[in-house]
Amino acid sequence: MDIENIKIKVREAFVKVLEHDNFTLTDQTTAHDVDGWESITHMMIISEIEKSFDIKFKLMSLMNMNNIGDLIQTIESEIK
Amino acid sequence: MGVIDQIVESFSKYKNRPALCIRKETYTYEDLSQSISDIRLLIREHIPLSHKHIGIMTNDDVETYATIFALWLEGKAYIPITPTTPLERNSFILNEVGSNFVLSSEKVDGYDKDYSVLITSDIQSAEINLEPSEFSESNLAYILFTSGSTGTPKGVPITFKNLDSLFRALDADPRHKIFSEDKCLQMFELNFDFSLVTFLYPLLNGASIYTIPKDQIKYFYIYKLILEEKLTYLVMVPSVIHYLRPYFSEINELEVRYCCFGAAPLDADIVLEWKKCIPNAILYNSYGPTEYTVTTTYYSLENNDTPKTRNGVVALGKPLDKVEAMVIDEFQNILKPGEEGELCLAGSQLTSGYWGNSQKNKESFFTTVYNGKEQRFYKTGDLCTMDEEQDITFIGRKDFQVKIRGYRVELSEIEFYAKEKLSKTNVIGIDITNDLGNTEIALIIESDKFDVSDLEKHLKNKLPDYMIPTQYKFIKEFPLNANGKINRKVIKNIL
Questions:
Q1: Confidence (pLDDT) at B406
Q2: How far B114 CA sits from the closest chain A CA (Å)?
Q3: Residue B56 structural domain
Q4: Which of A36, B136, B295, B323 would be a feasible disulfide site paired with B319, CB 3.0-4.6 Å?
Q5: Cβ within 8 Å of A, B 241-300
Q6: Residue A41 to residue B251, Cβ atoms within 8 A
Q7: What is the mean pLDDT of residues B224-231?
C-alpha cells in the first residue's frame, strides 16, 4: 500500500471517530490541531486504525507517536 | 504532627531532593519553597487578611502547586477552578464562596471584569519563608465542588483537622507509607479530591511527584512515566488500565511497588491481569467520598488471587483507623453483617456540611448514638454491605437503583451479566422512561453496532424478566468526566 492510500484510510478513521471532517492531516499535525482529538478519542482512533489495516501497534511505538507523520510511518512499517 | 508542620519540616529536610517533575523538568523542594515564598509576598501585598477563600486556576506547573501551599501558610483556603471549565460555572463557584480573587500562573480571559486576577509566574522574588503566618486546625484547607443532582454544584469544605485526620489514618497503616525515594504518579486535576493523596501525601514525605501534561495522551504518558522515570507509587482510576489492557502483554515494570485504584468500580478480571504487569507491586482498591476527605477504606489484593467481589467488582475494603462506618436501612436501623443498605460514615475526616446548603445538609447528615457516643453521620448514597470481617462491598449508587414494575433493580447487576457475555466490552444500564411513563432499562454498549440476540438470550438465562433491557444502544466510546469516571448523565442526555 502506498503512502497516499495509507493517508486516505487514516483520514477515514479520524472522520469515523471524531464524527467531523473539518481538519487537514499533514505530517506535522498533532492532537492540538484537530477538534475533538484528545486522550479518549485518540485511543478510539488507534483501535479503528488497527482494525482497518489489520495490524496491532506496539505500545512502545504508540508511546512515542507525536504527530501524524509518526503515525503514518508506524503503519507503514507494520504493514510491510 | 499536622499537615502544616509537616510541610515546614519536610520541605527544609529534603530541600535538595526533587519535589515535582513536570514535562521532564525537575523542581527541588527548595525551588518549590522559593516559589511558595514569592507567591506569599504577592498574596500579602494584594489580598486583605480577612479574605479567606481564594480561587486558583489549576494549571500544570510549579506555581500552581506552590500557590496552594502559599495560601495555606497565609491562613487561606484554595478553591480550585479549572481552565477548561466554562467561565459561568467557575463564576458560580467563586461567588458561592465569596472569592474576589483568582490566582493563576497564566493569563486568563474573561475573569478580569468580576475578579482580581493575580498572576503567580515571573514575580518578585522573596526570601524563603515557610513559617505559617496564621494557623488554626479549624481553618479551611479547601472547598471542592461536586456535581449536584439539581444541576448546581455543591461545595464541600474541608478543614486542616479533616486533612490531618486523613493523613494520621493513612500513617497508621504502614502499607501505604511513602518514602523520600518514591516516585509518585499525580494524574489528577486539582479540583478532584483524590489529588490530595497524589500530590500532598508524597510531598509531606519528601517524595517526588510526576504530573501529566494536559496536552498529552494521558494513558500512554502514564506508561511512559512508569517506564522511563521508573515510578514506584501509583494511584490511578480504573480507566487507565482499561485503556492499556490491549498492551498488557508488553508491560513488565519491576520498579512499581505500590498501585492503588479508586474513584470508580474496579473490575476484578482486569486488575488481576494488570497485577502481572507490575509483579513486585502490592495492589489496592480504595474508596472515599469527597465529603469524608478523600479516602475511607482500602482493600488489599496482596496474596489474593480471588478477591472479594460483587458483580465482578472488587470490594472496597476495611475502614481506615478511626473511621466509623455503618450500613443502615431506609429507617436508619443499623443492619447486620452482609445485609444491604446505605453506607454511613462518621469521624474526624467528615466535612462540616455542604457550603451554604442547609436543605441538602438536612438530607445527607444525621446525628445518632453509635458505639456509646453521639456522632454525626454522612449518608453516602452508596449501597453497600459490610461483612463479618468489616470488608465493605459496593453494590451500586442508591440513585442507580431503579424500580421496574415494582421490583427493585440494581443496574450494576444487569451490567455484570452483559459484561460476562461480551468479554472486554464496556456496558452500562440506564433507566429510561417510555412513552407511557414507565421505567424501562436500556443497555448501552461501548462498541460498533452488532446483533444482540445472543446477548439477550444470555441475559434471559440469568435474570428475571423485569431486569431484561428493552433497548440496546451503541456508543463508540463512553464519555468520561475529567476524572475518568463514566459520565452517565451525558449518556442519558444523548439518549
A1: 66
A2: 30
A3: 3-215
A4: B323
A5: 243-244, 246-247, 250-251
A6: no
A7: 97
Q: Which of A63, A66, A74 to substitute to test the interface with B, most B CBs within 10 Å?
A: A63
C-alpha cell at B208: 517526588
Check B217 against A59: CB less than 8 A apart: no
Pick from B369, B396, B423: which residue ends a domain?
B396
DSSP H/E element including B340:
none
List pLDDT tens digits, range B266-294.
999 999 999 999 999 999 999 999 999 99
C-alpha B368/C-alpha B96 separation (Å) is 30
User: Does B147 or B395 have the greater pLDDT score?
Assistant: B395
- Does one domain contain both B380 and B473? no
**Total number of domains constituting chain A:** 1
Our CA-based measurement puts residue A9 at a distance from the nearest CA of chain B, in whole angstroms, of 18
**Best CA proximity match to B251, nearest among A70, A77, A58:** A58
CB proximity A55 to B under 8 Å: no
Last residue of a domain, one of B349, B377, B396: B396
- Same domain as B425, residue B391: no
Chain CA centroid to CA B6, Å: 23
CATH of the domain at A22: 1.10.1200.10
SS3 call for B4: helix
B382 and B463 both lie in a single domain: no
- Using the predicted structure, report yes or no on whether residue B149 has a pLDDT greater than 50: no
Residue B284 CB burial class (10 angstroms; 0-12, 13-18, ≥19): buried
Classify residue B15 as left (phi > 0), alpha (psi -120 to 50) or beta.
alpha
Residues B419 and B389 in one domain: no
Count of domains observed in chain B? 3
Range of the domain at A53: 3-79
Nearest CA-CA distance, residue A65 and chain B, Å:
10
Q: Which residues of B touch A63 (CB under 8 A)?
A: 220, 223-224, 227
CB contact under 8 A, B219 and A43: yes
Are B355 and B446 part of one and the same domain?
no
| Per-residue exposure over B241-254, b if at least 16 CB sit within 10 Å of its own CB, e if not | bbbbbbbeeebebe
- Chain B CB contacts of A56 below 8 Å: 246
In a domain, B464, yes or no: yes
Residue A17 contacts B, CB cutoff 8 Å: yes
User: In the 8-state DSSP scheme, what is residue B68?
Assistant: H
Q: Which residues of B touch A43 (CB under 8 A)?
A: 217, 219, 243, 477
Task: Sort A41 into a burial class: Cβ within 10 Å, 0-12 / 13-18 / 19+.
Answer: buried
A-to-B residue pairs, Cβ atoms closer than 8 angstroms: 39
Please give the ipTM for the structure prediction. 0.92
* Whether the predicted pLDDT of B360 surpasses 70: yes
% residues pLDDT > 90 (chain B): 78
